[in-house]
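User: structure tokens for this one?
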Amino acid sequence: MKLEKSESNLVELKARAKSLDDYRKKLQELKADHIGTFHQTDTYFEVPKGRLKLRETEGIQKAQIVYYERQDIPGPKTSRVFILELQGPEFFKDFLHKALETKIVVDKTREVYRHQGTQIHLDEVKDLGTFIEFERKTEGTPEAASKDREVLEDLMKTLGIKTEDLIRGSYSDLLSQSGK
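Assistant:
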């Protein structure tokens, strides 16, 4: 089993989307780079703090174990993310399912774009609907995070994302609240 690790600070936001086609068109007009479209399954586990998930992407022989701590506020928020990427993850997947209680499974199709240092996701989430999400790496300082929040707010305005469509938590939270 080959293991790769990373750690990063992000500024991010998530919003409900009435039409992914409208955002797709605007991203094309901005000449955002289309990275690809992926079917992902995120299995969330019960942990005492933060969020822990196993991410599997269809057609890719790797999986990611992702632990993150993030503010639960609408609008741009900061998070600290730790990722272990596993080549041939079957043993570790079995291990997690035996050692931890599964909280919820999120099944989604994700289109990934990149524009001026911001990764943009157009998500279709089973049993929840459609969403747009921004992720931007930031330095660990309050000044850098503030500057990167402004970048996300500007991109939000450019794409026409309304404040009332912003989401506070994660897809796992939304699915748990919906009882699915």
